[in-house]
Write a structure and sequence with these properties.
By secondary structure, the chain is α+β, with helices and mostly antiparallel strands. About 20% of the residues lie in helices and about 30% in strands. The protein has a seven-stranded antiparallel sheet. A six-stranded antiparallel sheet has the order 10-1-2-11-12-13, with helices on one face. A hairpin with a 7-residue loop joins strand 11 (about 245-250) and strand 12. The longest helix is centred in the last third of the chain and has 16 residues, at about 195-210. Mean pLDDT is about 90; it is low at about 1-20.
Amino acid sequence: MAPIGQYFLALVLTSVATVSLASTFWSVRGPDSGENGQTMLAYVRDDLAGEQTLAAVTEEGSIPFKGLYVGKTHRFEAGLNQKGLFVGQISAASVPRDERLTLFTKRFKSAEGWFGGEWLVRNCSSVSQALEQHRIFTGYPMIYVLADKNETAVVECLPNGRFVVRRTDAGAITHTNHFIFTDATQSNRTVPASSSARLVQINKLLATQPKPFALGQFLSFATNADEGPDLSLFRTGSKPRSPKTTCIWLMSFPQKGGTISHLRLLNDTIWETTREEFPASTPAHPVKPL
C-alpha cells in the first residue's frame, strides 16, 4: 500500500493535470491592425463553469500585473503586466491526460510556488525576454501565448521536453489546443474535434472579414456560435458538464498610451464586463535567463 502522503500527492496531481482548459487565441499586427499596426489580440477560454477573477497583484520582487485566476485553487491562466507583456496558457489537449499526468512533476515551478506562465508575467518585460526563459518551456506539454506592443509569439511545449517557437511582428497568428507547427505536429496523439474546428473558424474569419480589424470585430469573432454548442468559437455546451466559453479577453497595444483591455467573465450565469487602460510601458525589468 502506498504511503498516505504519496496517495494524497497523486490525487492532487490528477486533479490538476486532468483539467482540460480549452482556449482560442489570435493576434494581428501590421497593416491589418486597426491600432496603427500595433498588436491586437484575443484570448478566449472554454471551461466548466466556476470561479474566475481578474486580480491586481502588486508584490515585492514582482512586476505589478493583472492576473486571470480560476477555480477554487485560484489557478493562474493569463496575465498582463505593467511593462506591457501579456502571457496566456493553453492546454495541449491533443496529449492524453494520463501522459500529461506522468510529466506533471517536470513542469517548471519556482521556489515561490509559481508555475511558468505566472513566473513570466511577474518577471519579464517583453516577449523577447520571456522567450529567453527556456527552462519554463521544457518538461510539460502545453502552449504559451505571448504578446507585447512589438511582437507576438506562441510556444508549443512538447512531451519529449523540446519546444517550438513561432514569433511575428507582422501578420496574424492563431492557436487552439493542439500542436500545429511543422516540427511539433508529430507530438499530437489525438486532435480534439473542437480544437480543430475552432482553428479553422478563426483562420477563415481573419482571412475573409474586412480589414483593418477593430476590437469590436474581434468580439464578434469570439461570440460566433455558427458551428453549434460544442464546436463554435463561442461554446454554450450541449450538456450540463460540457465546456462552455467562460472568458473573452481582448487587448490592443496602441503606439501611444497604455494597453486597452476589454474583459468579459462568466461567473455563475452572469457575464461581467470591464474595460480599462493599463499604464504605458515602463523601463525594462532586468531578469537573468533560467
